[in-house]
Amino acid sequence: METDAPTAYESDEKLIIALDFGTTFSGIAYCFANQRDTKVVAILDWPGAEGESAPKIPTLINYSDADGGGFAWGASVNRMQDNIVGVKLLLDPKQERPLYLPTTNVKRTIKSLPKAPVEIAADFIGAVYRHALGEISKVVPHDYFKICQKHFVLSVPAVWSDAAKNATLQAAKIAGIFPVTLIKEPEAAALYTMHSLDFSLNIGDAFVVCDAGGGTVDLISYEVVGLSPSLQVKELVPGTGGMAGSLGLNQRFAEAVKNLVGDDQFAKLRKTKGFLLAAKSFDREVKRAFKGDPDEEYFVNFPMASLDDDPDLGLEANCWRVTGTDLKAIFAPLITDILRLIDDQGIFLVGGFGSSQYLKACIEREHPDIQVLQPTDSWAAIVKGAALSKLPKQATIVATSAPKHYGVEAWIIYDPVLDKDVPSGIRRDGTKRALNMTWFINMGDDIQRNQEIKLPFYRIIDEDYTPNDLIFRDTLYECADRYAQLPNPGFPSKGNKIRPNCKVTADLRSLSSKQFRKGVDEEGKPYYEISYDLVVTLKSALMTFSLEVDGVSMGSVQAKFS
């Protein structure tokens, strides 16, 4: 039947769908941007949840029982099986692990997987989105749902590398989801917290969002810079964080059990359903209920495990009496790590681990003069904030603080004092040049939202050039050392923490020689000079690139992250 209804591309109706793809749990929230009283709604019904309403499902996936390339995911996964856990962390395998977590061979873990981590992430993300679309379509008329432009938002840890953020985008692309915008998890949490908490903020007020999740903990400081027409905040200093998430508590619980029963018994125990049930009990009940009292007691059972009794350690009849002192030892290094990251400012605690009463009590004890706010639905703060980020007239993050220095190698005018130890050469126009770093973003710089930064490039090619000579490759470097702020930090190979961020390929084959400047070298040979700008845009959590010649967008550019 023919209809005059507009297509999704013609319609102004917008459906915003946000995914918090977490290490241990994931969730979806959505809103219709054009509604008069827009509300952000979380998906609460999930396959395998047995009628239980929950804003998040376990980030689990299992291919073992599936036929024809299928898989089980989320709450429908059998917890008693050997499931793939924490695939999100494998998207950033170079992330430094703290010494207090059990050592793991990441390369071996990745090699043992049935697919590459980005493909497994794509399977999970795609399944979650498809289910969400089905759930959302139930609450609005079918024709309206069909014409809505669908905008997707994915949250990522602030401390992640650009390569890991790009891998998340690639996973979404493989899953068939586009267009996608990335948002930093603490930024999303800040937006939701400011939207939902009923209190007044004034210009100049500062606060810290501590997003304590399953795998990572991110902290970012914000300052209120505007109140009208909507609340506006900016990042004060570069975000900090690390792998101090609650998954580490689970891993340290396993280590505590190993120390309790000994290596030989643990080797058998860890393969049983009894251990899986005990680990589930710790994850779902014990660590969430713990308030920090040494006299607290919890009982963790290992059904049918046949463990040797050790009453002195609280182990009898396959049941471990876990005391508050035992739990403090498990929590201790993660709490210390988080406290180390927190400054003396107002603190919003969000994320799964952020809902821990013990963590809140530790922060308050360490910083008695500040207020620690813990939203009641901190689990959903990130995913709801991600959806809010696409709504007009909401609180906005107007500027971020650069977490690192970003720059490129460039041939600059030779300085006989500063450049005596770096590569140098004579250019065809007769000038002596030195190869040095040019930093176009410095750590701590205020980067305005949607700001464009132009990197001027200059090339010389022969008069009889071929089309392939118009493909230029450059490496974008990053540096976490303060010395990179110096005017002449030296050649990249000398930098202790200078490493490639991505390789950028600029394709100017669409340009004609009329757009180049012609020159003649000292030997009388003609050549062309090509000047172009690599335009870096920081619209979201990941840099994007475009190409301009004489201020006009042309050609194409691709970035391959390291």
From TrEMBL:
PANTHER family according to UniProt: ALPHA KINASE/ELONGATION FACTOR 2 KINASE (PTHR14187), HEAT SHOCK 70 KDA PROTEIN 12A (PTHR14187:SF5)
Keyword Disulfide bond: no
Pfam families referenced in this protein's UniProt entry, alphabetically: HSP70
Keywords in alphabetical order: ATP-binding, Nucleotide-binding
Record keyword Cell inner membrane present: no
Classification lineage: Eukaryota, Fungi, Dikarya, Ascomycota, Pezizomycotina
Signal peptide: none
The protein's name: Actin-like ATPase domain-containing protein
One of the record's GO molecular function terms: ATP binding
